[in-house]
Amino acid sequence: MLHRPMRREEREVRDQDRIDSILDRAQVCHLALFDGEWPYVLPITFGYEPGHMYFHSAKEGKKIDIIKKNPRASFCVEVDVLPIPAPKKRSGLDLPYRSVVGFGEVSVIPDDEEDRKRHALSVLAAHYCRQGVDIPRPRALLDKVEVLEMKIVHITGKEKGPFIER
Description:
CATH class: Mainly Beta
CATH superfamily: Electron Transport, Fmn-binding Protein, Chain A
Shape: globular
Number of strands: 10
Pfam family, one: Pyridox_ox_2
Helix content: 10-25%
Number of helices: 4
Strand content: 35-45%
Protein name: Pyridoxamine 5'-phosphate oxidase-related FMN-binding protein
InterPro entries: Pyridox_Oxase-rel, Split_barrel_FMN-bd
Number of domains: 1
Distance between the termini: 38 Å
CATH topology: Pnp Oxidase, Chain A
């Protein structure tokens, strides 16, 4: 089952603006793939726009091999993870967090779809550097990189406070 109700539903984030905010602030995405024998999770840079995640990759390697065999994937990002003292808890600590988990199918954007590759790379660059949208991407650069697109079929957020605002 792709989605089941969250056990601690008071922690579920359903509001798309809050989900987008978490994704906007996250620095690393953990992409989970399945090669038929073992799960494969890797930290990866990403770009997000509603309904889509974008990643870049070398032209060949384990990640590309797995995606070509099985495009189904999931991802997780988290922000505001900061242990705080909680003397009343058995552990003595509390661990607040905000996270987003999504599911979808990942595909390689074909080299001949130059505009789609440029768009995806612009979204990715803009995630880390707001000026990144205007970085020139000549055809020679596009030919050296694979650009991956995940079409998100389900996304949800979760948060557990208390939060210390920074």
